[in-house]
Amino acid sequence: MTQKKERPLVSICAVCYNHANYLRQALDGFLAQRGDFDIEILVHDDASTDGSADILRRYAARYPDKIFPILQRENQYRQGRQNISGIFNFPRARGKYIALMDCDDYWCNPGKLEAQVSYLEAHPDCALTVHAAAVKNDRGELVNRNLMRPYRGDRDLSPAELVDKAGSFPFGAMLLRREVVEKLPDWYFRCPVGDRPLELLAALKGYCHYADRFDSVYRFHGAGSWTEEMKSGDFKKKQDAYAIAMRELYRAFDRESGGRYHRAAVSAARRVYFLTRVNLRDYDEIFSRRYRRYYRELSLRDRGFIRAERTLPFLFAGLRRLRDRIFRQEG
Question: Residue 19 is inside which H or E element, if any?
């Protein structure tokens, strides 16, 4: 194994599973980053079967002082190990700052890290910086410009706002301080997604800064994605299990924070439940008065689609099947 040299300022912690079609673009985006600081690229490949490991070997051989892969022989996720970076990447990260990435996505701005590092260096009370991402399909076509753009304009989020926010931050947009992940609680590893517990841990350390720049690309319905996994099998059972798991996450966070953000945590858990009811088209819950706030957070397009689908269910069932078929073809 190549001996690591000077301590880098940024550790890029990336996860890969059957991302051979996208992996080079992700790695090239890491290597293209400019700035007067060193980086290390820590990639965990979860026993991919599509040649991803071979790509990582070649890149690691070309950049032995930057790229440090872990190539699993057995899939860890199927063994119940969730949030892979917390198990395999964070413990070996040496940087002052931690960047995150799924290797089916990529960074499109070589100044992304430089801008985020500069902000964190100048604002010691900030624990997390994020930005927007363009959403594209596998052909590189823009699918939705605003899906991963939660705000219009730069803004700061207080810890309570970070806990109880309506929009999603792209995983590949996150840069956080090392101390956020130095001691990970049990509830981090039990969470079915990786971004939300990191945002909650960041809220315990400081505020979040959002920059309204499209510095990365989120690939919609990419192979091996969590979204694709959720859509397979018993969809209702998975949605119900997800809502329960996220409720337990927020309860554990509430205990961890000593109740400092209790109202925000309760609200965030209710929002997750509401969104799973939207996915399941449970109209009684969707239009319930107790979830009115979260219904109003939906886009006008989504609200219109839901109301029309409720009024004309047979027509919109056919349109939804057509839409899903198109998405599968694009993915």
Answer: none
Secondary structure letter of residue 5 according to DSSP: -
Tracing tokens 């959403």 back to the chain, one arrives at 135
d(CA 291, CA 51): 46
Show Cβ contacts of residue 106 under 8 Å, excluding neighbours closer than 6 positions: 22, 25, 26, 28, 29, 172, 216, 217, 219
CA torsion, points 149, 207, 191, 261, in degrees to nearest 10? -120
The distance of Cα 29 from the centroid of its chain, to the nearest Å, equals 17
Q: C-alpha angle 75/217/327, rounded to 5°?
A: 75
In the predicted model, residues of the chain with pLDDT beneath 70 are: 1-5, 221-233, 313-331
Using alpha carbons, select from 167, 15, 41, 175 the residue that is nearest to residue 105: 15
Mind listing the pLDDT tens digit for each residue in 136-182? 988 888 887 788 999 999 999 999 999 999 988 999 999 999 999 99
* Predicted TM-score (pTM) of this structure: 0.89
What tokens were used for 210? Answer: 């959002």
Give the whole-angstrom CA distance, residue 89 versus residue 80: 17
